[in-house]
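Action item from last week, closing it out:
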Amino acid sequence: MSEKGVLALYWAASCGGCEIAVLGINEKILDVAAAFDIVFWPCVLDGKVRDIEKMDDKSIDLCFFNGAIRTSEQEYMARLMRQKSKVLVAFGSCAQEGCIPGLANATTKEAIFQTAYHDTPSTVNPDGIRPQTETEVAEGTLYLPFFYETVKTLGQTVDVDYYLPGCPPEPERIWDAIVAILENKLPAPGSVIGAETTVCDDCPRTRDEKKIKEFKRTWEIVPDPDICLLEQGLVCCGIATRAGCGALCPTVGSPCIGCYGPNEGVEDFGARMMTALASVIDSDDPEEIDRIIHEGIPDPIGTFYRFSLAHSELRRIALPANGGSDAKLETAESA
């Protein structure tokens, strides 16, 4: 890397929280500016895509790319930033796992458009107009990106050098990653930058033998401030979630929801969570186990794949070959 590196940041299908998280490093942003020339950051700086297109390949030392890939424009930008960057980091859960945008894979593009442009109570659309990729107007042709059927992660679209998890990554972890990059102390390419332990390892709550007779929703109980939330019947994902947040949620009585993604060595976060919960249910009766799960976990996809559906072995519902409404879960290989 040159004496002063070149940095780019880009925002695809995400909420924008990752952009705010970068600013959350506070005065250290001045150290970033001292170490890098920031050539592209649409949320903060006035930059043009055509300027990036004109740059030499690999002339950007580091790119933090946050957001999933939902449209053709986002895929183009992912490929462009990969082409121009020496190091491409999937920044945050949306880029790494698909996150909340990835839950759209539980439905179809047609159902999304039907709801958004026809069925919502606030929609007035008597002509049934939907967005088109090309529309002719008096001034010429207007173009919109193509809306893909399937939400993809950054790593499913281009080669990614490193992953920085979190929804969003905590400012301290962002700074740790920047320091590791500046000091050339990064792990092996393809690695997740951060801890290899779980949220449970950072949680100050007392843990004992977990035996659950029923799962409770967060609004049903006021949890004991000192005892493991999972042992109190709350579905806390800390047992399967990578550390890095400082166990902020369970520390204040709110169950971990898994935003830092799977722990080291876990291929499918949802499968890991289901295995963990199955091991703590205090019953050998299949009907009783079924009742405990169905009554206590009414939204399995939202519980187990809230952040990781697009990245999971399931990936999305199957698209019916006959164009009908029937659908089933399928693996990533067949998506």
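Closing note: Confidence is low (pLDDT under 50) at residues 324-335.
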